[in-house]
Structure formats: C-alpha cells, structure tokens
Known about the structure:
It is a single chain. This protein is α+β, with helices and mostly antiparallel strands. It has one domain (about 10-60). The protein has 2 helices and 5 strands. It has a 5-stranded antiparallel beta sheet with strand order 4-3-2-1-5. Strand 2 (about 20-25) and strand 3 form a beta hairpin.
Amino acid sequence: MDVQPKDILIMKKAHPCGGNKMYVIRSGMDFKLRCVTCSREFMVPRNKIEKNIRQVIRNEADKQEI
C-alpha cells in the first residue's frame, strides 16, 4: 500500500480518544502517526497499520510542489 508522509489515514478502529483520523508523519518499516483529534504522536509497525486502514486521503496540491 502506498502511504506517504502528509497523508491522512481513516482507520477501522478508533484511537482511545475517539478519533479515527491519523496524520502520517513518517513511513517506513514503522509509521509515525499523529491523531488528528488529540494530537498525540505514536509509532506503530507497518503490518498492524496496513490491515486497519479504511481510506487514505491525499492532498494532491502538496504533492505537486515536490
């Protein structure tokens, strides 16, 4: 799955704060994510995240500048 920094992931399971949208800070073997609702940052292994992604929201305007 193609997940890049600055993407927003909508997850199947909610974060303990109740939000299910996560902002991708870093991707690789692990993902560093930030909860959009409570701004908590955490790292999760790639295999756990990829099976729980419902949708990837990508801002194409940001990607065109690179």
